[in-house]
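STRUCTURE:
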């Protein structure tokens, strides 16, 4: 088990969000749901307080904090995708009801920022031919959803 787990703060949507996320990636599951034992700012007694879950093998915690907090691109979650089909599937699922942004970034319906990236991108950006690497970077900067064939 990892010693460090990201904690995602939600107003009241922790369980809904965790269930949504684990439905998208293999090696993902809900580990534990902790409920409030009394009334608190995060909710009434018996409502969900914390959801511990695993997403693609990485442990996470989702917390119902009782008030809306804004996420920032200063911390986001990058998903390495094996092929364009996986890019498309995750882009469509995570982007639905969210906000689509440039260069493979989006915010999901909960405001959490994600980067949906083909796993081949670092290799393309690190090409020994600087002109080729520059063309790849220029292509990425002009894209919204990343397109492997166009890179």
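SEQUENCE:
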């Amino acid at each position: 088990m990892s010693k460090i787990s990201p904690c995602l703060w939600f107003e009241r949507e922790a369980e809904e969000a965790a269930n949504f996320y684990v439905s998208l990636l293999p090696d993902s599951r809900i580990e534990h749901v902790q409920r409030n034992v009394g009334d608190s700012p995060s909710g009434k007694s018996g409502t969900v307080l914390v959801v511990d879950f695993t997403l693609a093998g990485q442990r996470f915690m989702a917390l119902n904090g009782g008030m809306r907090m804004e996420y920032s691109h200063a911390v986001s979650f990058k998903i390495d995708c094996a092929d364009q089909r996986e890019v498309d599937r995750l882009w469509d699922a995570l982007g639905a009801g969210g906000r689509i942004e440039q260069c493979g970034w989006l915010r999901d319906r909960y405001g959490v920022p994600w980067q949906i990236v083909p796993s081949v991108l670092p290799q393309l950006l690190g090409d020994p031919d600087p002109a080729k690497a520059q063309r790849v970077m220029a292509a990425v900067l002009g894209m919204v959803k990343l397109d492997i064939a166009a890179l």
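REMARK: The radius of gyration is 18 Å.
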